[in-house]
Amino acid sequence: EVCTKTAINSCSDCIKSGAYCGWCKQLNFTKPGEQEAARCDTQAALKERGCMEEDIISPKNVFFNVKNSTLSKNTDTTDDPIQLQPQEVYLKLRPASFDQRRIEGYPVDLYYLMDLSYSMEDDLRSIKSLGNQLFEALQGITKKGRIGFGSFVDKTVLPFTNTNPEKLKKPCAEKEQFCQPAFGYRHVLSMTADKATFQKEVNKQNISGNLDSPEGTLDAIMQAAVCGDRIGWRNSSTRIIVLTTDDGFHMAGDGKLAGILEPNDEKCYLENKIYSKSSEMDYPSVGQVATQLENNNIQPIFAVTKNMEGVYRKLSEMIPKSEVGVLSEDSRNVVELIKAAYNRLSSKVTVTHDSLPDNVKVTYTPKCPNGGGSGGDTGVCDNVGVGMMVSFDVTVTAKECLDRNISFTIGPLGIKDKLKVSVSTRCECECDDPQTDAHPYCNRQGKVNCGMCSCKDTFVGQKCECSIKGKDVSSLKAACQKDNGTECEGRGDCVCGVCQCHAIPGGLAYYGTHCECENESCEKYKNQLCGGNGKCICKNCVCDPEYEGPACQCKKSDEQCRSDQSVCNGRGTCQCNQCKCIEGYQRPFCNESSSTHYRKCIECLGFQTGPFSKNCSEACKSIHKFEMVDTLPPGKPCDVRDVENCRVFFTTFQLVGEDNYTAQILKKKECPELPNIYGIIGGSIAGVALIGLLILLLIKGIIYMNDLKEFRRFENEKKKAKWTDGANPLFQNATTTVANPTFTGE
């Protein structure tokens, strides 16, 4: 048992903190300076600290049976048998048990819901011939069995059904003589115990048809669940829907394919036994169907063909208290399938509850007659035979106080009997305090409330010892605040402008003007305050004479800080046998400086140039002695560039003390050679001339190439020219030839 306390200012706060928290109302229970929150703890802890048992306030849970009728053994003695005990309880919290028995011969209402699409033709013929066997199987389960019948295909709109008027009247193949018009869901027969009536109505049924493979299965299940008065479900019966089909199902959202946007509202719309909103309302979701089946205590059995088994097993996982069986090709095994599925359903008891507020939790621990079972958010017992008693321990936990009474129901799925649970919480203390407003414990300036003083308006303090009449309350509170912070650092109570510090568990207490001090928060060494070598005073260690350090962890010694008979070379202090160097120097002996400012002094001292040349003696006091040399000692020297960009080489040596150096400076500087001005000018002129020449040659080359291109084009055009010989029609030759007509050529 653990009492997890939070902010405790009253008995009520304590009771709300946890189920195991109690409050001691005993006067003078708290010690001087101890907070009133010390009154809150487990009962064992309070008794150990001296609180009398009669002074401990720890409200107990209240459990009261409102209705507790005895379980029925069979259905012969009553028409409304009881399978759950108790029926109503009242809890006032700060766990409950009920029993359930499977009654022999409990009434069963079985609704046979059949897919009459064209692919189920042979299955319909089988059902017509199996009516008697179905009734005999039902009578084998209970003498008070009734059966109903319904059928479904799909919505009579495209693309689910052919909307051609002739096809709507006869959606089957042309060769099919007996075919009924297309429909969504039809309720054929209400619950009846008359075998002949059932057989007659089933024999009237004919096959129908649609276009796509999925059917309007969920539409049919929803209407069969919510139209209870039309179907004929009894109040005191096991309600079962046997659904037979060889195809999948449409679900919420599929209606959009036909332009149906109105969501399913889970209401009954049977007109003349036909689902009238089939073409106006979308299919329901699986969640909606599961909810309505649970709310109406209906247990579905899905009798499907082998190819659809996997689909409906997934659906069964989302619908509590449902079973799946595999039909033969012509549904001849449907009777055996229903018997087996019913036995599995009825032998499994699953207990759950309806919705709860976020701050209330219900868990179940089953006590199954055959052992086993599973608990948690639901309670489950398997293999429960007829007449067996099953018990469940129910634990109702209120995580926090309820602002009003709440009610919820608990019960087995598929059974109408429910346990009504009403819950309220006990969050107030009943301390039975004296009625006087001037109790001596409170200096007669207040009354006792669960061991604490409730002072009059002009008095404050743990025992109302301080009068604030005529005083400025804000100034009194300000006197208890350090640097405008929290009153008494949150470690005490401000009484009349003076901090009354709280006690610390273990017998110690906070102290100081603002309760800022305590002797338990100093640094530890080897898990001991101040290493066991000093005292903790107001969060700081005061070490014994031979020890030092923030946790008094070091013996006073400077052996490892000495170098050349000086401690830390005069550039630091020895703490915990280690040098703590002045900024700019490094351990272990503070003998190397990371500073580079003295480099500027080298140019000033050696060559009287540089930024310090005007006040060299003042700026370079750290170099007490320097000399100009022709050669430097072996080793890599330091260097610095002067104003002429020459490199000046030097070495330095640190003396004992802070900023204390000697230096050796090389007389000869290393300067860069001056550039050849004439060479630069001549080279520049030659370069410009060369670039100009190259530009002229480039221009000349471009002009030449362009002329050559034009000449070649002229030559090509010349070769292509054709010259023709033509006679001038005005030209007359000067020579005239006349032929002698008598000349024979001889």
3D architecture notes:
- The structure is a single chain.
- This protein has 746 residues and is an alpha+beta fold.
- 21% of the residues lie in helices and 26% in strands.
- The protein has 15 helices and 43 strands.
- Strands 4-6-21-20-16-18 form a 6-stranded mixed sheet, with no helix packed on it. The protein has a 6-stranded mixed sheet with strand order 10-9-8-11-14-15, sandwiched between helices. Strands 5-7-19-17 form a 4-stranded antiparallel sheet, with no helix packed on it.
Report a brief summary of the structure.
By secondary structure, the chain is an alpha+beta fold. It is built from 15 helices and 43 strands.
Strand proportion: 25-35%
- Structural class of the helices, strands and pairings? alpha+beta
How many beta strands in the DSSP annotation?
Answer: 43
Percent of residues in helices: 10-25%
**Sheet with the most strands: spatial strand order:** 4-6-21-20-16-18
Chain-averaged pLDDT: 83
Q: Which oligomeric state applies?
A: single chain
What ranges have pLDDT less than 50 throughout 5 or more consecutive residues?
none
How would you describe the shape?
A: flat
Total of DSSP H or I helical runs spanning 4+ residues: 15
Radius of gyration: 54 Å
Cα(first) to Cα(last) distance is: 167 Å
The major β-sheet equals: 6 strands, mixed
Domain Integrin beta subunit tail: 590-676
GO biological process, one term: neutrophil chemotaxis
Domain Integrin beta subunit VWA: 10-429
Domain PSI: 2-52
